[in-house]
Amino acid sequence: MHTKLSSTFLRSLALASFALPVSAEPSMDQMWGDRSTKSGVETSERAALFRDGNYGMFMHWGLYSHLGGQWKDKTFYGIGEWIMRQMQIPRAEYMNLAKDFNPSEFNAKEIVRVAKEAGMKWIIITSKHHEGFAMFKSKHPFNIVDASPFARDPMKELADACRAAGLGFGFYYSHNQDWTAPGGNGGPDKHDDGSPASFDQYFKEKCYPQVDEICSNYGELAYIWFDTPGNMPVEHVKALAELVRKKQPKAMLCSRIGHGMGDYESLGDMEVPLKNHSGLWETCDTTNDSWSYAWYDQNWKDSKEILHRVVSTVGRGGTYLLNVGPDGKGRIPAKAAGYLVESGKWIKEHPGVVYGAGPSPWGHAQPWGDVTRTENTLNLVVFDWPADRRIHLSGIDGDIAGATLIGKDGKRTKLPIQRSGNWASFDASAADSATVSAIASVVEVRFDKAPKIDSTLGIHPNSTTQLSCEFAQVRDAKYQRINWMEKFGEWKFALQVSDWKPNGVAEWEVNVAAAGDYLVELTYKGTGRPVWSVQTSEGTKIQNQQAASSVYHSYPMGLLHFSQPGKHKVSVSLVDGDGSKASLEAIRFTPAR
């Protein structure tokens, strides 16, 4: 996978060689280039699988999988597919690894079985990553059939297995970066005979012919997923897009082809947005931290986290593409497969929550979980039940036809509904305990016609409500997204307010369900002991000094009182402290008991 990064480094990435110091961090803009997409594709037949399936499998598998994150007894603690570059493995030595690469336990039918049982509707696999090694039979000799003892074409086996099982199939192809091909971005600038190599040569002699091969030799494809275009010349990107359109007219193009030629937008790696996102888009995520197999990486997403991220992506209006990294023998790690299958059992019991479902009309998650929509039915997916087993929803205008808790084996339990203003609550306190203790519960809320929703952020009376700075109005301070790496390629981000001026304010409009006291916490980082003030439009105010650290942490500010339910404004300001170092991420409200 590409690495996700800051913003000024990657624009130079695609012009000649990848002349980056090993420790340098390319920016997202430099990696991805222009990620805009075409309009109007949402209604096309070609988009149907993407638009309605909402869940697919990504696979990062290549020569790097043979190393598994280790080179000469040293572990590379970063995304495994970048090991050649980050550990400065000489080109000749790296290419020589192919002679020992024999994924003898690769079983295409088993991989497809896992994907189907996980509830996924397609598989996209790396046909060639940045290392330049083709995982398919190619006229270019550096490929798994001709350069390794495996001597089989696993891409053909997987394409056939997907087709037989009714899954869509697609290829990832690194079109810009190629670290072993002379002229490829990041590759040598000379041929083996010493003659100069150009990107144009690489494109004509390797990139374009290989894309032609994957588009010609594997039957009908659902996706072609290019990656890290950087500043790749537009004429080359256009040539690839036209080739795909000619050879695979039903294939969807990811936005990472560059220059606005994709059919759908691929967000940043591992990014599930907090707000609904318009258009046709996906989140690509991975089951642990690395995209390819790394021997040490056991930070697996369990079945509940996988399911939560699937539902949250669909709830924001997108499609979820979840990666697995088979090892050097060709096996999906057992832990990843187990959690995928377990979450898939739940999806098969509640298919309408994911397949063909639309986004939440609130435009954001709820404290207890999230919402997807099927026509006039709202699917409330509850991951964290409040202690009183009451689910609250704000801003509902109109009558509710009914609410039903869906239990195991489809058992349906009608739930009592209470209304207070434009809030509604659904009481599951009498429901079967096995239903509410499941990995997640579903409450179907039915309307006779499409409901009208006021999406003002609700402060819930029985759950902790966290409000991100993404939902705030900011004055005399700077709202922005900041990105950083935990390990190389393992990207984190925060939507935060920083650069506080003397009168700086972050303000939220909220809809309070119940009057009373609420414990307020602020999530921030900074230096020293900043003093923060929190004030409501009723004039209630709390102010406190707390410590700060170099990482985001939640600190209690005190009890804030709302004298009446309904709409209020809540503002946060920095009263004292270094405004250039203070970074506010969120405010949290917990009802006092």
Your description of this structure?
It is a single chain. With 593 residues, this protein is of the alpha/beta class. The protein folds into three domains: 33-353, Glycosidases (TIM Barrel); 369-455, Golgi alpha-mannosidase II (Immunoglobulin-like, Sandwich), CATH 2.60.40; 465-591, Galactose-binding domain-like (Jelly Rolls, Sandwich). 20% of the residues lie in helices and 29% in strands. It is built from 13 helices and 32 strands. It has an eight-stranded parallel sheet with strand order 7-6-5-4-1-10-9-8. Strands 21, 23, 26, 28, 29 and 31 form a six-stranded mixed sheet that branches. A five-stranded antiparallel sheet has the order 11-12-19-15-16. A hairpin with a 2-residue loop joins strand 11 (369-374) and strand 12. The longest helix is centred in the middle third of the chain and has 18 residues, at 199-216. The two termini are 47 Å apart.
Share of helix among residues? 10-25%
**What overall geometry do the principal axes of the alpha carbons give?**
globular
Major β-sheet annotation: 8 strands, parallel
Total count of strands = 32
The CATH architecture designation of the largest domain is: Alpha-Beta Barrel
